[in-house]
Amino acid sequence: MQEDFHYYATYCAAYLAGYTPEESSEIAYSAQFVDLCTRTLLEKLKGPVQAATTQSQLELADAKTDIPGLQDITRIWSSFHFLPGDLYVKKKWRGRRYMQRYRLICNPDSDLIVETVQLAKGKGLQAAGLAMHILADTWAHRYFAGTPSFVINNATSFYELKGESASDDDTRIIFRHNPTARDDPETNYYTNTIYQNDERSIMNLGHGRAGHLPDYSFMRYRYLPAWGDYEVIIKDNPRDYWHAFCQMVYAMKYLRGERDSFEKKHYEEENLEMWKSDIMRILEKRQLLASDDWKAFGFGLSGVSLEDFNIEKYQAEYVAAASDEKYSTFLGRFFLAALAQKSMVTNRIFMSRNRLAGFSVNYDKRGLKGIRDYWKLVEMRKRGDGNG
């Protein structure tokens, strides 16, 4: 997903869940910040680089794809953008190495999304926003895995649907590989990653082989995924994005304390019915970025115009804070939420006997202070300071 949904649509969902405009804007900011919190930015802020929730194109270009490098990539992308749908799913006639990758395929309504939302409970607006980013991405990024893998993430034969089901009249999508070229819905020219049959190639991370098609709410398309043995899969983005929006409202009502629990396959559709036509109109409009429409919808709901996203908004506060006060700042609280989420997902992958995200230490009894990424976890295991 993009800024239009993670920022503007999340603001609308938060307001409909009962948050004030000010609270909704902080949740929305945190949701969008997940796509921008790179190690490069954290180094600039002298923040905890282990709290990175994404990697820039330059960082990925320099990333190593040896075992430690792949584990680092997997921890970030599986924790925040491609939350695994079923870490114990089975598939006949497949070996352990294949199944480790297969089990990282993202899907909504998983046990991990329940844990993600529950983890954010009582942790503040930053944790709520981070969880909403992850929840929304489970719908947009379904069928792809947050680890470089040709046998899982490669895909071919993309066609945009004329209706809601496949037909002979569907329009073929033509891909090119120039990252500076703008996608063009009118001509059906889009950009994706270069074909690489190297299993570990960065080109095979996430939905790179599908370009930005999963990020456009209006897209209905079919394609042949490698993980599905190159049999047809239909992706209905408007329908999925509607469910993502409804589930965000349901989740945030739980986070606010209005609901006692957060459960899988529960949405807020009935209570949002009066706004469904307006929301679907936004979702189905053929445009690459729907920010203006979502912003207008949010203003109609709250009477407050959400300011445009500004990545520098909270940076000065964090930099100026004393060392013992940094985690009380807006960004400090976001970093703590990111560390907790990353640790939880890494632990669940590790406990499923899958080593693609590296080793894990259970911090349930140790709190958040001092959490480090993979190498720190290994050091603590060697010293016997942690469990798991």
* Main structural class: alpha+beta
Instruction: Work out the helix count.
Output: 15
- Poorly predicted ranges (pLDDT <50, ≥5 residues)? 367-371, 373-388
Oligomeric description of these chains: single chain
**Percent range of helical residues:** 40-55%
Q: Sum up the overall morphology in one term.
A: globular
Largest β sheet strand count, sense and barrel closure:
4 strands, antiparallel
Major sheet strand order: 2-1-5-6
Radius of gyration: 20 Å
Question: In total, how many domains does the architecture comprise?
Answer: 2
State which percent range the strand residues make up: 5-15%
Number of strands: 6
Would you kindly provide a written description of the structure presented here, covering whatever features stand out?
The chain has 388 residues and is α+β, with helices and mostly antiparallel strands. It has 2 domains: 3-148 and 239-383, no CATH class; 151-236, no CATH class. The protein is built from 15 helices and 6 strands. It has helices at residues 3-16, 21-33, 39-45, 57-62, 67-80, 96-102, 111-120, 125-140, 150-153, 237-256, 273-284, 291-302, 315-320, 330-351, 374-383, and strands spanning 155-160, 171-172, 174-176, 189-191, 220-225, 233-236. The strands form 2 sheets. The chain has a 4-stranded antiparallel β-sheet with strand order 2-1-5-6. Strand 5 (220-225) and strand 6 form a beta hairpin. Helix 5 packs across helix 14 and helix 10 packs across helix 11. The two termini are 33 Å apart.
